[in-house]
């Protein structure tokens, strides 16, 4: 059968287009519900009138139904379409809130971060998720875990947009998780209630916390424990930053993300464990049920992430089909799991892990058999090595454009890391599960702890050796969405051409490659002509950026932050960065910029100021400065207190001088010189 003949494939494509369509339009569910019901009615009428079999359902009608269904289910995730969503009750003033901790995020230097559900607002029952930031306080340490309920009086604020050019869009990232607002608290501003509010996700998180707490008492090293949490429990928050970076550089980060690889290995282990049941009456059915029960129990403990649900769903369909001795098609099973996951939560489509997971599996299923046809070694050892290498290559090829788009780097030695680690992953996972079970039963022997510690250390050491080969790690690769589309077009039609050589396939593939190279050349030429100058928004430092083609001059009072301008460098194709100490006076596009900070270095009375830059809560008489120098613009960056910026803004308003607060308006871009 052709792929298009599978109903699941048609639904998958239509569902995807519908979700993307409503993500673009953000329409109310009412706009989609009526057309969807009409299309279903017409669909049924066509079936009844013409007596079509399922195999002969008109493709266009069915495809339209799928698009409308996708748009409808996506619209139901928007706050505007949720009658009880707390956003309908928010006011600019503080309100009484009842919150339930859903999960804990990675903390930063200033706050502990949680995803919470808002259960009530001003004594009115509500629903919806929010981001909760609780300021760190060494004197008030209160542990919170999923299921805990809090009562507080606080403001609900929108998540801020990016304030600097090419900054990571945290607002969009949270929106794709159904979170549109944030709540900021101090430890003394809330009270924890005695009762807990449990859901399947909070129960899952609590089980993981219990397992982690138990493992901490067994003598595992901190690095090893972090790897165990990531490898078996789906939590990467505990992994050391340097270790995580090593896995990224080695192209083995997927090992630390519980996904199809892990689920497949575990299903194989469960099948071996339950094989004696086949001797019993109805043993195959009992084995299937127990195997799926164990699989979904593990998925529950590991957090039910989209990649885990996808893998478990696909393997569940596969196991059931094998039990019935029905012919199966992997693309059909993959599409069925894809539809299931998106119907449960259509926002999964926008999760990077979800996209990479499905793309990798699709590439393996489609490309691996074709690659094996090129060479099939008769030697058993070579055959197994080639199979593993082929899987790694096809998966990497499938996710390459997306990886470059999201992470801007390519690990050239990915195949070595996978060849050295993946064959032994079954042993590592099996021993890990045994370790967890014995630890929870409080009968874990020290010899097993030492053995597993050694295994994890050895794996980390191998990954580190591969990651240290810097010459093979390509970083800071600029890659935008148009290049993603062109890359996949080239790969898709190129593979189709080599499978069935046809002139039109070759023309499309080569054309995509030609356009791709043309786009790269055009963007390089455009980047070489750009001259931009910015004052960035930073909370505790001052940054002035000046781009001249591929050269970026960064003037700052803190050069220790390598990530400050990384996204800008990648997006603008910067080839050389020159970091210098920040001065007080600059000439920019024939205009004078003067910076005043807490050191109070003031300009000479006769000095002409076009742009006045106020930093670090400078204690100045702004009225006098404005009268003496008459600047055309006053800029206050994030190093100032908010109330100081507000006072300066009021002064500028009275003097009718434009004022730019980077805390509210984002980075200030100097006008281009048109001379």
UniProtKB/TrEMBL annotation:
Residues in domain ComEC/Rec2-related protein? 231-500
One Pfam family here = Competence
Transmembrane stretches, by residue range? 7-24, 30-47, 59-80, 251-274, 286-302, 331-350, 388-407, 419-452, 473-498, 504-522
| Presence of keyword Ribonucleoprotein | no
Topology with regard to the membrane? Multi-pass membrane protein
- One GO term describing the cellular component: plasma membrane
Q: Where in the cell is it found?
A: Cell membrane
**The DUF4131 domain covers which part of the protein?**
27-189
Sorted keywords for this record are: Cell membrane, Membrane, Transmembrane, Transmembrane helix
The UniProt entry, under PANTHER family, shows: DNA INTERNALIZATION/COMPETENCE PROTEIN COMEC/REC2, RECOMBINATION PROTEIN 2
Q: What is this protein called?
A: Competence protein
